[in-house]
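Researcher: Quick test of sequence recovery. Tokens follow.
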């Protein structure tokens, strides 16, 4: 297996959790008496760039689909943490109505909703349509897609005028 970031051959196992079913893959009543797929959960660390990673056993679009079951807003303590974090970030960085906060893997808008309360423009990106619908109900603009260079290029090229000079630098790097 090679590192996803720098392509170095991976030799060091960070931890081996043996086998596990796919995260959030809940079995339906009809599936309970059938076989369940388990995959090796061996976690590697790259000697070169130190990226910690697992080998891909199931494609992301099979995991993050319409049946995705994890909604961040189920946890009241997590919501309180997100609200406190937003307050700290606004105070520390001075985010305001001229800013834009982009969250990748924004789930159901658990974090961005609190920036919205302060009139800070937000954009969420999440591959799961069911969580994105919940975010939209909270007023969180959400793109349903996997974040990658293709999406970044498309979005920045279409909406570059929304960004300050820091994002324009990113746009130039992606071209």
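Model:
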């Amino acid at each position: 297996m090679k590192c996803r970031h720098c392509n170095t051959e991976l030799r060091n196992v960070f931890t081996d959790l043996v086998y596990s079913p796919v995260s959030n893959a809940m079995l339906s009543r009809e599936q309970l008496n059938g076989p369940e797929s388990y995959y090796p959960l061996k976690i590697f660390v790259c000697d070169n760039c130190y990226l910690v990673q697992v080998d891909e056993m199931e494609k992301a679009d099979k995991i993050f689909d319409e049946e995705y079951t994890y909604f961040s807003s189920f946890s009241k303590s997590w919501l309180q943490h997100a609200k406190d974090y937003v307050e700290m970030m606004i105070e520390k960085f001075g985010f305001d109505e001229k800013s834009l906060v982009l969250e990748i893997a924004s789930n159901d808008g658990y974090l961005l909703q609190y920036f919205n309360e302060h009139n800070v423009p937000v954009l969420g990106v999440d591959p799961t349509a069911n969580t994105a619908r919940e975010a939209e109900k909270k007023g969180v603009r959400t793109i349903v897609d996997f974040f990658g260079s293709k999406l970044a290029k498309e979005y920045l090229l279409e909406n570059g005028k929304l960004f300050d000079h820091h994002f324009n630098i990113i746009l130039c790097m992606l071209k």
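Strands lie at 12-20, 39-45, 52-54, 101-104, 122-126, 142-144.
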